[in-house]
Amino acid sequence: MLTIKNLHATVDGQEILKGLDLEVPEGEVHAIMGPNGSGKSTLAHVLAGRPGYTVTAGSVHFKGHDLLALSPEERAREGVFLGFQYPVEIPGVNNVYLLKAAVNAARAHRGEPEVDAFEFLTLVREKMRLMRMDESMLSRGVNEGFSGGEKKRNEILQMLVLEPSLAVLDETDSGLDIDALKIVAHGVNTLRAPNRSQLLVTHYQRLLEHIVPDRVHVLVKGRIVRSGDRTLALELEQRGYDWLISEAA
Amino acid sequence: MSTAVLNRLKDEFGAVRAALPPGVIDEPRRREALEALCAQGLPAARDENWRYTDLRILEQARFAPVQTQAAALPPLPEVPEGFARYVFVDGQLHSGAGAAHGVAVHTARADDASAAAWRLEARLPEARLALLNETFATDAVSIEVAAGTQAAGIELVFIASAAATEGASYPRVRLALGAHSRLSVIERHLGRTEAPSLVTSAVQVDLAAHAALTHYRVQQLGGQAAWFDTLSAELAADARYEMLAVGAGALSARSTVHARLTGRGAEFSLAAAALADGQQSLDLYALSEHIAPRTRTEQTFRGIASNRARAAFNGKVVVREEARGTDSRQSLRGLLDGAQCEIDLRPQLEIYTDEVSCSHGATAGKLDENMLFYLLSRGIAPEAAQHLLKWAFLEDVIAKITPSDLRRQIETTLLGQMRELDTLKELL
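The joint structure predicted for all components is written out below.
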């Protein structure tokens, strides 16, 4: 699904990713962990194509195609979804409009007709129940006045409606209380499928109690320094990151 | 330019004065207004509070009123539910009826003396173009709401049909609300064609104690027109005046709004949206004057300028010595869409007493990069994302328009102007 080779990327002229290699096969859920400033969020944004994040070397292939050659909106339409750590508020553009526009953009890209309005609303309502979101949020501005937890649930709602092939969730667990964390994890788990992959970027192990990853990778100073199964996350929880940082140095 | 233009103005007045209806304004008053205007001179770009106004049209315009009325009306938007429509063509009543019980609509052309028995309180040099209206007005409408009347709405539609070379038009309106009465007014200025019309409007608002007026002002003149507008309002104790102004049309538009809060507890809120494109220049000068204690005012402006256009808001709040316990808020935001456009925001505060709470904020900038990327990351095309954000920017003001059919009409117009009606119509 996703193959990253020797990825180097800079932000404001400063190199953040320094030769990152990563392989996420179809149907798998991988977690990227690491200390603050290791490049986790940079990786998420590079994959989504954020302007200002410059790839200086290396390659990223998504379903066999060069992902870096695509614009951000093309990546989204191809099935890459970024769940933001800090979702922006866009007052004046309502949630349901954005959802529908996003779904239709992907459908048009695949040569399919626009989604039926009634079926679409039925689907959205079902997913909202799953995320325990109040229906009134649909008619509100995107994330407008939402609490931190509501914003994260809204991100997962968008993901569930868009059904991406590759979901990159950037610290979706940060700022969530335990109930919200469970709801978010439940949402992510329902999307698990043999033809989908997920990349969870997280600082803490606690999300991984609810979403069991196939692989865990540790990112330190812009490179993957260790990979393992879920027990690696537990080890990090006990030992912290310092030992890996000194090993990397 | 001023002297030459003033001389021409006097000549034109001399030539048409006998034909100007004395029932609207009698000749001595017209002459007085003209003399006052000549004494002050026409506004010019060097005047601090006119520097953002495109005044060039005054040099070529013919000031004398348009003589002939167009036979056929252009297609008009549906009448919003609950409103009685009155249509004026080139400043003169064309048709209208249906005002609710307790609301009297007087028009001067119908030899109704009440229509003419008022004059605009043009106290400021910024209001001096109201004198031009007083010199040449050919009709006047006065809407009087009896005390205690909870009236539905009145819609005033002013259509400019003629080119400025054929003459100007002078819409003239008074809204007088009795104590404890309530009224909604829609005031639309529409252009018939791409004709470069000159429209100089004057509006006087008088609110008695506890009166409540909601006033929607929609400027959608043709792309070559000029609109010079002066509105003066006086608010008695506990009166509430809510004004929502949307400016999208005209090549050059300038509106001067002066609200005097003379009664304790009076409230005035102005929310304005401007969408300027091409070579347009849209300028709004607003002065909120707190004269009595415990008065409240709010000024909200959202302006977008694209290409070589300019959107300006000059908002001044004055708190007089007696106006203790005043609360005033200003939120001015401009969006620059292009390298050659211009946003001018001037928040000004003058406070002559203590015990006040005044806040103001003014920001001008480009589209928010974070919002833009968020939309792109959801698969929205860059152009559509930009339009969507421009749209969202104006919604701060547009969402306050309560009659849903009117809001829909305005939204459709704005989207049409943004050339995004097809892609974004589902927003409506």
